[in-house]
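Morning!

This is the sequence you dropped in the shared folder:
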Amino acid sequence: MSYDKDLSIVISLYNEEESLPELIQWIEKVMAQEGYKYEIIMVNDGSTDASWKIIKELAAKNPAIRGICFRRNYGKSAALYHGFAAAEGRVVVTMDADLQDSPEEIPEMYRMVTEEDWDIVSGWKKQRYDNKLTKNLPSKLYNATARKVTGIKLHDMNCGLKAYKNEVVKDIEVYGEMHRYIPYLAKNAGYSKITEKPVQHQKRKYGVSKFGLERFVNGVLDLISLWFLSKFGKKPMHFFGFTGILMFLVGGIMAVWIIAEKLIQQGRGLVYRPVTEQPLFYLALVAVILGVLLFLAGFICEMISRNSSERNRYNVKEEF
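The structure's back. Tokens below.
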């Protein structure tokens, strides 16, 4: 496929009025040096400051700037989804608007995608200037967990500075807070050539971070959701059915064992404990009931999956 532009730079922003002029000037300088045909897609995620006014002023001076403005704050995933849909460049680069990502990293990332044929090049902020206790340590734990679960060996999964082939961003759907796991979404879509590049991390110059510690808790929950959907999204019965049968069998065996033990002791004239007075019997009943419920849940999920518009959506690499 041929593209009219070399680069689409997608910038999601929320209340970054102070940094925008400097950021655009920095990007324009790098683009001029490299001679790229480019576009800058700025997605204003419901900012309450003058960010949108500044974007329109910058666009009036540079026709390569395109703007998208949300009526309210929807989150970074929503902003990237619309930015990806609008991107027309051969390579799509995402970066934050807070001046912590350096545009000077873009040429090398572009080269790695176009010449080395990587599907995704993710930035890796080896040396960070964030607070070590509230940002660095949780980030290391979060990334170690993400590597283990996804099988993608990236040191900084959540780095905002990334470069993608255009077809990658068109074949994935970013929603909720899944922007943290775009490489995993791409891997599940069949794009396995994913690498990373050490990038320079800048200290925040203006404003404050829009993300708190809760993002790490939310990130783990999102990771579990993505893992489950990738494994069982099209075959939920494999999970619920297996788990249900296992619990049903465990509960059934426990109940039979308790009843058989009581009957044997009764037949031998020994002192026995009534079945209904044994806590283990009620645990067995709970296991049996949960097993049946999980099995029925599997049937319901299968019916939902079979009627989903996505049930036969597969990414075709090429055909002739």
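Headline: Residues 28 and 166 are 21 Å apart (CA to CA).

More detail when I'm at my desk.
O.
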